[in-house]
Specification:
This protein is mainly beta. It is built from five helices and 41 strands. Helix content is 5%, strand content 56%. The strands form six sheets. It has a 22-stranded antiparallel β-barrel. β22 and β23 form a beta hairpin. The longest helix is centred in the first third of the chain and has 20 residues. 42% of the residues are buried.
Length: 734
């Protein structure tokens, strides 16, 4: 800890010197208005391209950036419901005033993203496939966990707690995520299991979720083998944003008598709020939630709460500091798998129904941003993410773990030349685990990365790489010397004269085994998990070619996006059954795999109130060692979305399809009855909401998840969520 404090002190003193030497010059003032009505646009986002530095317009649609160093800047201006715009500005010693008119948009065509290259860009400038999920999905579908939101993204599968992007993951009992999760750029994977905690998110304040598809280790390092998931929270503006909602849901009775375990209906209920606002130089964000869920299965109850807070301050016109924290606590029944297909809503007969799992997650985050000159800016961030869990069982089946992850990163962006924009940085991550399940363990990763973007007219080249030195050890003894990984990346995005964008990229990803995969030693419900300290790093090489085309046919706008990809996977870590006195599982490097696939997406607005979106993903997930299909992967997935707005009402629906996975672990039959009961998935959701802003900013909605009450499994021995009818009331002031 002393070393970390010393490093942080040196960094902040360096920044103070840089701030003192920066030479302020001119002031930039602007007004943003609606092109059709001339009305000022409140809360429009003004960002300096290539950075995360920016400001928002006030109630008059005016923004003011003061003391800006001389040089050429590109402003990216965005606002909900309007087409994003770029404006080039040359700053000299005098003050400059600009006026920008923004066109209302009927279709999302030029989204602003920050995840792909760790800076602000439009989607069209990014050489890799990237999906965006808007934060209102949590309110519209009564969702409070990340994994349920990701199920509506083409090319993304969720198998219980395992998130799989383009087939990168199967089912590994929730351990070792092959996609890294970030909250505003801060890593949020647990230090012991290396997994995503889907309930540890401030969902009432999520603005959008950005999902990078393909290896992201060149910038994000370990665990970005299959992709990156970054949750972006709303930035406070002068205009207050406030939302509060209450929802109540009912699980309908299963149609099979043998599945009915209660005379009444099981319920889920919850309440949440979110608030953000800027006061002069200080921004405040707060969010909280409480969820109580009876569950759609017997012995499947869960109660949880979340609290989040963030404060940001503009120290000067060129520097800012933000502090944030999150706490999430849950208490749930320890459901693992069903009794049998005939008793799919009940756990095995010998299950201890007094057992509960209590889990806590905490994070503390700090970020400092500094503009040094027209071509240079720096970001320093540090955070702590802590997780704790334990069950109530005695003896060999007692499970407990306390894990802490410390992460510090320094990022520097500079324009070396008109054709060379450099992003470089250093990262140190330290995992500390004390657990009955895993013992006392430590994991260290030291990283250096750099990436160059070379804009050549309508062509943008991206190339770079990252070095990661990882070491895992027990408190007493190191396992081995550090393991060094180099993850290169090469990409290209080309804007054609037809306004289409062609992109291509190739990059490497890697993931070290989590502490849980290496050291887990426990017995539970008939299974025994044994350690394997010799696990090697997983590696991947991802290649893709994509095409994006906005068009108009008879004044009907469409956006078409298509891509083909090939992912080569090496040393894949999978849970395997090994010989022993009882069914034993051990994590092994067993698989050399190849996943080849394609994605096709189309969005359109037939009229001002009627829109559609279709997405299809097809892949061939091949285990090259055994010449068989990889387990737990669906070869075909489909999403069809419709919405129709008429007056104060909006009707919307989603249809999701996943083909039946060809393979699962056959050894599971030793412990799970009817382990192979699986079908293709057909899920239809539908809802209607009413909102009359002129009367009150209140939204009423009825939403049905799995409207047709279709029965399916995502993983062996686990019935998917049955039909649920939600009723919600939301107060939304934005």
């Amino acid at each position: 800890m002393k070393k970390i404090l010393a490093i942080a002190t040196i960094i902040f003193l360096t920044l103070a010197c840089l701030d003192a030497t920066a030479k302020p010059n001119g002031n930039l003032t602007g007004k943003i208005t609606d092109k059709e009505t001339g009305e000022p646009i409140i809360g429009a986002t003004i960002r300096l391209q290539g950075t995360s530095i920016g400001q928002f317009t006030n109630r008059e649609g005016i923004f003011s950036l003061k003391s800006i160093p001389s040089g050429k800047y590109t402003l990216i201006i965005s606002s909900v419901g309007y087409e994003s715009q770029k404006v080039d500005v040359y700053m000299l010693s005098e003050d400059i005033t600009i006026e920008v008119e923004m066109r209302p948009k009927t279709l999302i065509s030029s989204e602003i993203v920050v995840t792909a290259n760790k800076k602000v860009q439009t989607v069209q400038e990014v050489p890799i496939s990237l999906s965006i999920v808007k934060g209102n999905i949590f309110r519209e579908k009564s969702i409070s966990k990340l994994d349920n939101a990701l199920k509506y993204v083409p090319g993304v599968e969720v198998n219980n707690d395992n998130v799989s992007i383009r087939g990168s993951s199967g089912f590994a009992f929730g351990l070792g995520s092959r996609a890294i999760m970030l909250l505003d750029g801060f890593p949020m994977l647990s230090g012991d299991n290396g997994d995503i905690k889907s309930d540890a998110i401030p969902f009432p304040l999520i603005d959008q979720i950005e999902i990078i598809k393909g290896a992201g280790s060149a910038l994000y390092g370990a665990s970005a083998l299959g992709g990156v998931i970054n949750l972006i929270t709303k930035e406070p503006t002068e205009k207050a944003y406030f939302t509060a909602s209450s929802q109540f849901g009912l699980y309908t009775q299963p149609k099979y008598k043998s599945w009915q375990f209660s005379d009444g209906l099981q319920a889920t209920r919850g309440a949440n709020f979110g608030y953000s606002q800027r006061f002069a130089k200080v921004g405040i964000s707060l969010a909280g939630s409480y969820i109580s869920d009876d569950g759609y299965r017997f012995y499947n109850e869960e109660n949880r709460f979340m609290l989040y807070g963030k404060s940001s301050i503009a120290i000067t016109e060129l520097s800012s500091l933000s502090l944030s924290g999150l706490a999430a606590v849950s208490n749930r029944d320890d459901w693992v798998y069903w009794n049998s297909l005939d008793s799919a809503t009940r756990p095995p007969t010998n299950t201890d129904l007094d057992n509960k799992i209590t889990a806590s997650k905490y994070s503390i985050n700090a970020e400092y941003k500094q503009i040094i000159s027209a071509n240079d800016f720096m970001i320093i961030k540090t955070n702590l993410f802590a997780t704790q869990f334990e069950n109530k069982l005695k003896g060999d089946e007692y499970r407990q773990s306390d894990a802490k992850t410390y992460n510090t990163e320094v990022q520097y962006n500079t324009k070396l030349h008109q054709y060379f924009n450099l992003t470089a940085g250093a990262n140190y991550a330290y995992n500390q685990v004390e657990a009955r399940t895993y013992g006392k363990r430590e994991q260290n990763t030291l990283s250096l990365y750099s990436q160059i973007e070379s804009p050549l007219g309508d062509l943008i080249f991206t190339y770079g790489g990252r070095f990661d030195l990882e070491q895992t050890k027990s408190i007493q003894k190191s396992l081995a010397g550090g393991r060094l990984e180099f993850s290169p990346k090469l990409g290209m995005a080309y804007r054609t004269k037809f306004n289409s964008t062609i992109r291509t990229s190739i990059g490497k990803g890697f993931r070290p085994a989590s502490i849980a995969e290496r050291f887990a030693s426990l017995a539970f419900q008939g299974f025994e998990v044994v350690p394997n300290i010799k696990l090697k790093h997983e590696r991947s090489v991802s290649f893709e070619v994509g095409w994006n085309q906005p068009v108009k046919i008879d004044d009907v706008p469409l956006i078409i996006d298509a891509s083909i990809y090939n992912n080569e996977l090496f040393n894949m870590i999978e849970p395997k059954f090994v010989q022993g006195t009882k069914p034993s599982i051990q994590f092994l490097n067993t698989t050399r795999a190849r996943i080849t696939g394609m994605e096709f997406n189309i969005k359109t607005m037939i009229s001002s109130g009627f829109g559609m979106e279709y997405g299809i993903s097809a892949m061939l997930p091949k285990d090259l060692d055994s010449n068989t299909t990889l387990k737990y992967r669906s070869a075909i997935s489909l999403l069809a979305r419709y919405f129709y707005k008429i007056g104060d009402f909006e009707i919307y629906s989603d249809y999701r399809f996943k083909s039946k996975p060809e393979k699962v672990d056959d050894e599971l039959k030793l412990q799970i009855k009817n382990h192979d009961a699986r079908v293709a998935v057909h899920l239809l959701d539908a809802g209607i909401k009413y909102k009359n802003k002129s009367f009150a900013p209140i939204e009423l909605s009825i939403y049905a998840s799995n409207l047709l009450d279709y029965y399916y499994t995502e993983v062996p021995g686990n019935l998917g969520r049955t039909r649920t009818i939600f009723f919600s009331v939301s107060y939304l002031l934005d």
